[in-house]
């Protein structure tokens, strides 16, 4: 599905990715983890074409993404910070994104229902709270039916009920056979939903496999401790 | 009784001379007399010669007796480029309604279509002159009228073209309602005093629309001078009056509405200077009154070069000129008062129609342009506005006392 | 691109700043025309104001819009859209809405004053055309600055510096060098100097209209050809167009290589 080969990226003198090789098969939930500044967001943005790599190739469904924008039709992306043009109303934003993606069949109404967004549809985005914005953000992401979903910190600002809904949503998308990439700092959330984890450290893939494999590798019974042990080992 | 008889005879004879006996001679192709020359030869004093429509190929026609020559339906006198066409050497001559063409060109002699030489009381009117060297040339003439003529030249170069109406050592001449164009100088006065130049239109001439040299006490009013190579030049003359003339569209490096050089005691009132490179260029001219003139859209409304003293600029409108006044020294002895300046940005709090802050019409930038002409390209730049402003606040280069203390708030109608 | 343009334009048309800008020009037009009652003077004053103010507003507004819509841009980047169409769309959105404010803000009072019956309509058209060109040029330059500077403060700094440079400092240096080299033939140099600064270029167009009498007082043959014929007008418009095209190309070039 996604094949990344020898990906390098630096911002100025700061090397962020140095030779990432990653193959992600079709179907399943993949969590991309790593300490702050390990290159998680850069990796995701490289896949989305927002960051242009210095070296290396990214293939999506067998095609290179270089100088191409159509492949993004296959991806739904939830950005980390949800900040929208403040003059637009929620309804208009949804219509606009649909318009920009060429008016494909969507299920935005279901999602609006699920997240109880009806009262906000005629409000301007600038007047919404952070949590509500995040809900709008989720609607925008999940209303399309693309084979790949990328979620950058999807849990931020969500109330417990919405969090529950999100988890359901992710599971139901998975059951449709979609490939889902998630970054998150909430370890319990990752442990609960992810099938496989990819651990980034100092610009490289340190580990890729299931949570159980990670626990075995680090000789820890607990996921959070396993992660912590990787970090202390490498900083010692 | 005998005395009475003699007196009566004399009276009759005089009457006859003036009215009855003054003959009318007709000139035409089929008449007894077929040329103007022949007619003049046969005519007696005070006769009238009527020239019928036709083409008469003649030149060097000398009118040596008091005659009235009238053309009917504009007969053509064609000089065939051989020389001067008509020369008047007698007093009391009237020439009316001829179409004179093809005056000879010479580098040694100033051939004219019609010349008046040492004569008085002449009238030259309703003529049309074309293809000429000089048009109407008055030489030591007096008390004459040049009215309603139309002179159209084809001047291309200055050295081999002449002037439309030229006065040399002439006095008390009235020049009115003429149209002169495409010659070297439209109207040229040299050593000619007490003349009136009125209602003429002088356009598209190679050099000057009107040219004054060493001529005093002349009046010119209601004339229009436009698109002339260098505008109008008034030089070395005294007591000239210029009223209500229009000077327009004289564009070029050395072009101006009016050039004043060594002029004293003149009055320049009610004229309009519009779209000239320089409205009035003043050099060494003193005691001149400039009143109620309009300066509109000129490059420089007034450019003062050299010493000019005790001139007065009162009640003029300065509208949208690139530069209002340009000075090349920082001494000023001229008065600017109660003018309207469209560039004035002051205010009138006491509502008396006069701005509360004086206006300084000389900008620093005009000095810079005088020095380095290419800098004109920076006109209206913000940077230039800033340096002009700082000069306005504390004058260094411009005359300290050069200002209009009573700038008007509203345009003078 | 047209979709982005549409949304950017709508977004801006609703923003407070567009109204402020529009209201400013409206007020300026009304004050100049109705308190002055002199159309020619109003047009001259406006020209003086426009060649300085439009670039300032264009740069500041362009930079501001870019930084403010950064997150929105990121949202768009994740959509199946070309980068060049995203940025050109935004650029055109800003440039069009600024031009609209200018044209309507100045146009309305002039129309009410009776512009169509007056012969100042040509001066006014030139004014509007120049203003629009300047808006497009300086918005493009602003986007260039913003695309090259992640730091907002730095971006604003450069934008103001750019304006100061082109509106004032450039002319100061220009004037100094003309005076310094006054012994040499300068007419070509001075024309080239003008071409290299869009504000000077617009000023030249206005000079052609307002100060032709003064310009023709200068002797240089090149000057004469430039100002005395339509040559100057044509060259100036070509240069203004190039001043739009090059920064726009750089927007496309930069945006393709930028990381977000």
Tell me what the structure shows.
The complex is a heterotrimer of chains A (236), B (413) and C (260). Chain A has 236 residues and is α/β, with parallel strands linked by helices. Chain A has a single domain (2-235), classed as Rossmann fold (3-Layer(aba) Sandwich), CATH 3.40.50. Chain A is 36% helix and 26% strand. Chain A is built from eight helices and ten strands. In chain A, a hairpin with a 2-residue loop joins strand 1 (2-11) and strand 2 (14-24). Chain A is globular. The model of chain A has no long low-confidence stretch (mean pLDDT 85). Chain B is mainly beta and 413 residues long. Chain B folds into two domains: 23-229, Pectate Lyase C-like (3 Solenoid), CATH 2.160.20; 257-413, no CATH class. Chain B contains four helices and 39 strands. Chain C is mainly alpha-helical. Chain C has one domain. In chain C, 84% of the residues lie in helices and 0% in strands. Chain C contains twelve helices and no strands. Chain C has helices at residues 2-13, 16-34, 39-68, 70-77, 83-113, 121-148, 152-180, 187-195, 198-210, 212-215, 221-228, 231-257. The longest helix of chain C is centred in the middle third of the chain and has 31 residues, at 83-113. Chain C is globular, with a radius of gyration of 20 Å. The chains are: A alpha/beta (236), B mainly beta (413), C mainly alpha (260). Chains B and C meet through helix 4 of B and helix 3, helix 7, helix 8, helix 9 and helix 10 of C.
Oligomeric state: heterotrimer
Give the overall shape of chain C, derived from the CA principal axes: globular
pLDDT under 50 segments of chain C (min length 5)? none
Principal-axes shape call of chain B = elongated
Helix content of chain B: 10-25%
- Overall structural domain count of chain C: 1
List the helices and strands of chain C in order. Answer: HHHHHHHHHHHH
Task: Give a nutshell description of this structure.
The complex is a heterotrimer of chains A (236), B (413) and C (260). By secondary structure, chain B is mostly beta strands. Chain B has two domains: 207 residues, Single-stranded right-handed beta-helix, Pectin lyase-like (Pectate Lyase C-like); 157 residues, no CATH class.
């Amino acid at each position: 599905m996604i094949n990344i080969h020898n990906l390098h990226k630096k911002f100025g003198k700061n090397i962020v990715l140095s030779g990432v090789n990653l193959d992600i098969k079709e179907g399943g939930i993949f969590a991309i983890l790593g300490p702050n500044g390990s290159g998680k967001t850069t990796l995701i943005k490289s896949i989305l074409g927002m960051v242009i790599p210095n070296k290396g190739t990214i293939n999506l469904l067998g095609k290179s993404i270089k100088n191409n924008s159509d492949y993004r039709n296959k991806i739904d992306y939830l950005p980390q910070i949800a900040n929208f043009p403040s003059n637009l109303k929620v309804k208009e934003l949804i219509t606009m994104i649909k318009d920009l993606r060429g008016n494909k069949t969507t299920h935005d109404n279901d999602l609006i229902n699920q997240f109880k967004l009806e009262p906000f549809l005629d409000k301007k985005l600038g007047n919404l709270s952070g949590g509500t914005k995040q809900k709008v953000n989720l609607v925008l992401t999940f209303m399309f039916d693309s084979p790949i979903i990328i979620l950058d910190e999807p849990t931020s600002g969500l109330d417990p009920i919405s969090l529950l809904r999100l988890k359901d949503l992710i599971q139901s998308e998975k059951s449709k056979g979609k490939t889902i990439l998630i970054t998150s700092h909430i370890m319990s959330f990752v442990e609960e939903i992810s099938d496989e984890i990819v651990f980034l450290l100092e610009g490289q893939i340190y580990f890729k496999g299931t949570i159980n494999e990670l626990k075995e590798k680090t000789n820890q019974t607990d996921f959070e401790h396993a992660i912590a042990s990787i970090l202390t080992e490498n900083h010692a | 009784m005998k005395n009475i008889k003699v007196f009566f005879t004399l009276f009759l004879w005089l009457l006859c001379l003036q009215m009855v006996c003054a003959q009318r001679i007709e000139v035409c192709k089929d008449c007894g007399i077929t040329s103007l020359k022949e007619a003049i030869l046969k005519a007696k004093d005070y006769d009238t010669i009527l020239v019928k429509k036709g083409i008469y190929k003649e030149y060097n026609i000398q009118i040596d007796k008091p005659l009235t020559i009238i053309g009917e339906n504009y007969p053509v006198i064609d000089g065939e480029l051989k020389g001067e066409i008509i020369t008047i050497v007698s007093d009391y001559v009237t020439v009316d309604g001829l179409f004179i063409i093809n005056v000879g060109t010479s580098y040694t002699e100033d051939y004219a279509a019609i010349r008046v030489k040492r004569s008085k009381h002449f009238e030259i009117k309703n003529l049309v002159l074309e293809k000429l060297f000089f048009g109407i040339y008055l030489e030591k003439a007096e008390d004459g009228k040049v009215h309603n003529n139309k002179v159209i030249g084809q001047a291309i170069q200055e050295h081999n073209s002449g002037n439309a109406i030229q006065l040399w050592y002439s006095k008390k001449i009235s020049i009115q309602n003429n149209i002169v164009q495409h010659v070297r100088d439209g109207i040229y006065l040299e050593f000619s005093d007490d003349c009136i130049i009125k209602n003429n239109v002088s356009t598209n001439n190679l050099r000057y629309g009107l040219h004054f040299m060493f001529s005093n006490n002349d009046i010119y009013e209601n004339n229009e001078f436009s698109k002339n190579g260098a505008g109008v030049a008034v030089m070395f003359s005294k007591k000239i009056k210029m009223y209500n003339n229009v000077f327009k569209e004289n564009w070029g490096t050395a072009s101006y509405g009016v050039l004043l050089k060594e002029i004293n005691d003149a009055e320049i009132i009610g004229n309009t200077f519009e779209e000239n490179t320089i409205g009035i260029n003043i050099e060494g001219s003193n005691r001149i009154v400039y009143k109620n003139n309009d300066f509109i859209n000129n490059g420089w409304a007034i450019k003062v070069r050299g010493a000019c003293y005790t001139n007065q600029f009162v009640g003029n409108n300065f509208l949208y000129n690139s530069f209002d006044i340009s000075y090349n020294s920082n001494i000023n002895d001229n008065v600017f008062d109660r003018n309207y300046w469209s560039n004035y940005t002051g205010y009138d709090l006491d509502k008396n129609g006069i701005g509360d802050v004086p206006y300084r019409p000389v900008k620093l930038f005009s000095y810079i342009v005088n020095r380095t002409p290419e800098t004109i390209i920076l006109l209206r730049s913000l940077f230039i506005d800033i340096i002009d402003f700082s000069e306005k606040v504390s004058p260094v280069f411009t005359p300290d006392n050069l200002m209009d203390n009573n700038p008007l708030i509203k345009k003078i109608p | 691109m047209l979709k982005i343009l549409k949304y950017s334009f709508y977004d801006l048309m609703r923003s407070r700043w567009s109204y402020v800008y529009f209201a400013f020009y409206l007020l300026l037009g009304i004050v100049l025309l109705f308190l002055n009652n002199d159309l020619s003077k109003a047009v001259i004053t406006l020209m003086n104001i426009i060649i300085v103010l439009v670039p300032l507003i264009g740069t500041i507004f362009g930079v501001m819009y870019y930084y403010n819509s950064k997150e929105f841009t990121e949202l768009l980047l994740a959509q199946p859209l070309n980068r060049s169409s995203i940025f050109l769309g935004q650029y055109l959105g800003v440039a069009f809405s600024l031009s609209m404010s200018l044209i309507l803000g100045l146009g309305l009072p002039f129309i009410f004053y009776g512009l169509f019956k007056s012969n100042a309509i040509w001066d006014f058209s030139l004014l509007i055309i120049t203003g629009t060109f300047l808006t497009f040029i300086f918005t493009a330059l602003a986007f260039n600055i913003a695309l090259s500077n992640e730091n907002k403060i730095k971006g604003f700094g450069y934008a103001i510096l750019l304006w100061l440079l082109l509106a004032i400092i450039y002319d100061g240096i220009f004037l100094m060098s003309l005076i310094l080299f006054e012994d040499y033939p300068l007419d070509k140099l001075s024309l080239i100097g003008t071409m290299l600064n869009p504000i000077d270029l617009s000023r030249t167009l206005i000079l052609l209209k307002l100060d032709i009498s003064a310009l023709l007082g200068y002797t240089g043959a090149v000057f004469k050809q430039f100002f005395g014929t339509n040559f100057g007008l044509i060259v100036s418009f070509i240069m203004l167009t190039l001043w739009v095209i090059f920064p726009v190309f750089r927007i496309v070039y930069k945006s393709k290589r930028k990381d977000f």
